[in-house]
Design a protein that fits this description.
Elements: E1 5-9, E2 14-18, E3 24-28, E4 37-43, E5 50-51, E6 57-70, E7 76-86, H1 87-96, E8 102-115, E9 121-134
Length: about 150
């Protein structure tokens, strides 16, 4: 089971964080702000490995994360979250995961802006994965099937 519990005592600047997957951390952050996101969801498509011009591997994925409540029709809706993985996380994601695989991600929110072809400023919010856990089994490949 996944537990995330945050206790903030700003007077003494102590923070108790029970991280996902059983890690426990007690820290003094000295008033530092926290940018941390924990997600568990399903991949919406097969991950693709790409490389920067410097040869650094990366992958952009989208994870469908169910909401904790039902809408008026009684259906559970999902949010589709963009996540960027770098280096070994990206290589392992493309090697071991497939569309529909369940993954857990601990990361941080990062925003950026750019101008599109119409000279309009576009704002993009992305999650940068720092820790990834594969919660589904390894996908079956045609070589492993009888």
């Amino acid at each position: 089971m996944l537990f995330v519990y945050h206790y903030y005592n700003m007077r003494y600047k102590n923070i108790l964080i029970i991280q996902p997957f059983g890690c426990v951390e007690i820290e003094e952050r000295g008033g530092q702000l926290i940018n941390e996101v924990v997600l568990v969801g399903r991949l919406t498509r097969v991950p693709e490995l790409k490389y920067t011009s410097e040869g650094i591997p990366f992958s952009h994925i989208t994870v469908a994360v169910n909401r904790n409540f039902r809408n008026q029709e009684g259906e559970v809706e999902a949010d589709f979250v963009s996540i960027t993985l770098w280096r070994k996380n990206a290589e392992n994601m493309t090697k071991y995961c497939d569309k529909g695989s369940i993954i857990g991600v601990v990361g941080r929110v990062q925003t950026r802006t750019f101008e599109n072809n119409l000279q309009q400023r576009v704002y993009v919010t992305d999650i940068i994965a720092e820790y990834v856990r594969f919660l589904s089994g390894k996908p079956s490949s045609p070589e492993n099937q009888p």
